[in-house]
Every structure is written in C-alpha cells, then in structure tokens.
Specification:
The protein is 42% helix and 18% strand.
Length: 316
Amino acid sequence: MIKIGQRRMRREVGLPAIEGVCYFNRRFPELGIEPLSLSDLFRRVPPDHFDHPQRPAFHLLMLFSSGATTHFLDFERLRCTARTLLHVRPGQVQQFVPGAEAEATVLLFTPEFVLPDGAANHPLVPGSALEHAAPSGAINLDADSYERVHAGFATITDEYKRSDGSTICANILQHQLHVLLLQVARCSDRHESLLISSYHRTVRHFLTDLEARFMRTRRVEDYADRLGCSTKALRRACVAVRGVPPKMMIEERVILEAKRLIAYTAWPIESIAEAVGFGEATNFVKFFHHHAEMSPSQFRMQFPGRTSDKIKVVRN
C-alpha cells in the first residue's frame, strides 16, 4: 500500500511542492516490503492519483509481463513492454501514464528493508546489490533472464501470501529480496563493473553523503574531509568507477534537483535557488545556464501545465 503526503524541501505557503508518496503496508505495518500487481496498485488509489509527477520515499521494482506503456523517470521517457524491468528509487521523480494498458508485478520496499551491504555480499562483488539493480532505471530482459527474475518475484509473492508478520517471515523475505536484486544486477547492462572497482566503497560512501548534503555544500574538499581521504584519492575513485570527477557528480546532482523543482513545482526561481544552496539567484541562473544551456525560465517552459494551479496538494 502507499500513502500520500507532502515532503517539502522548503516551506512555501500556497506553492505546491513535488508530491511525496510515503510507504505504508496496511496488512503488516511493520513490514518493509509488499508485492502486488500493477492493476491492483491502480485500483488502490483515486482515479487522478497518477495524473501528476510524484516523489516516492521507497523503491518500486516493476517487472512488466504484458501490454505497453510509457513511464517518466527524472526526465527520461522509458518505454515499458513485456520483459521490461523498471526500478524507481527513493527521491526520484516519476509519473505513470494514466489509462495505459500494461500489466506488471510490482515490489514496493523501503531502503531499510534491504540487507546491509556487509550482511550477504560476496567479497568479489563490491558495492550493494541494490546499487547495481537496473542502475539506468529500466532494462529489457531476454527470455532466459526474464524467467529467472520472474521466478524471484514469484517466490517473494508466495512467501508474502504465507507470511504471518513475524520476524522470521520478514527475514526470509529480506533474503529473498537480496537474491532477486543480485539476479537483476547480473542482468543489468553494467554488471561487468561489479568485478573491477577497488574504489567502489569510497564512491558509494561519497554518493550517500552527497545525497544528504548537496543542498549545503558543493565543495569537493568538504566531502573528502568527511570521508577521511584526500581530494585526489576521491577523484581517482570517482573517475575509476563513474568516469567523471567528484566535482561533476556534485554539480549534476544539484542540476537534477533544480530541474525537478523547476519543472514540477510553481516555486519562483529565487526559492529554488535557495533550496539547492545558492545565496543569490543570479549565481544560480548562471550555474543552471552553464549546465543546461538554457535559463531556468526557458527550461520551465518545456513543461506547460505541470506547474499550474491544477497541481494537486495532498496533506496528511
């Protein structure tokens, strides 16, 4: 089950933020995972629930079995057909296409429900299975991979139906999810990188810290200090794992959040500049133009109607 609520990065009276969606399991309130079909998910919510972009606070792992639809994920238009696997991560902005005729098995699960990195990972597979599960958002599986991944979904669904909400059932589901994530990681386009990066742990810690602090600092030195390494060491790790230096990764994260707020809220540019860590709106406009090759206002014009008064404000 899902529960709607507002997650505001900055309080603005009368200005709708991107709608946040919180995880809520009606059957087992303490259990951080729930399998269901896409059609069941649509039936649970009001007809207009998916008419606008949303930012879930949990993972959605969807394996499409029939039909076709389009899913928008952080400005990417993803075509989903039979054997497409889609992974929406917490904090990403997504939007379903209303009325689409497609069916999928869906897993809703919280970040806390995923096994900790050191609990089950093989020493030759650095990083978390979750990180490598469809890192680009969507992958199209071949027939053999689809059958294996589908079996993983079915195993979790079967265990969930038999669950009594006990700790042992939760542990079983937690390990089954980990196995499924490893299967998905093996099928993902970038699975080769699992075996080559000695810098992976550094980059993973950097990305975690970046997610928590990008609105407060854009200095590489600040992140290196918190990681206990030099800026050169952080740069070597980021280039080895991601192919780009940490400064670029920081700036890309800031730009992504700025684009989300520009496209999907009615906030004025001054408020968005403040929300992503700029004291002066003029500096933010220059920064945005340098990276997006257009002004914030020009970028907003590409999304007509999405920041109008029609945006639904839902309160807890």
